[in-house]
Amino acid sequence: MTPNIDYKKESQVFKALSHPARLFTVETLLEGEKCVLDIHDLLKTSQPNISQHLNILRYADIVDYRQDGNLRCYFLKRPEKMKTLINVLR
Prior knowledge:
Helices cover 58% and strands 16% of the residues. By secondary structure, the protein is of the alpha+beta class. It has one domain: Arc Repressor Mutant, subunit A (Orthogonal Bundle). The chain has a three-stranded antiparallel sheet. It is globular and about 45 Å long. The protein starts with 6 loop residues before the first helix and ends with a helix.
């Protein structure tokens, strides 16, 4: 193993991206910040399900959010890294 590389943390990113809904969400967030309702409209799934997916993405340190009144608006923490990873998949 290479020193100074956190393989466990990096593997969490791949695990988080392994679900189609999360991969789609990340790809959508490449376009810019989206609130939960925006993501709900795109995924056509329940709000609790979307929240679970977003929590997994947060745990993997892929997304973060800002509170806007009652809305949570999500954004990618490292959009260039995610763009590169998605491009590699294609």
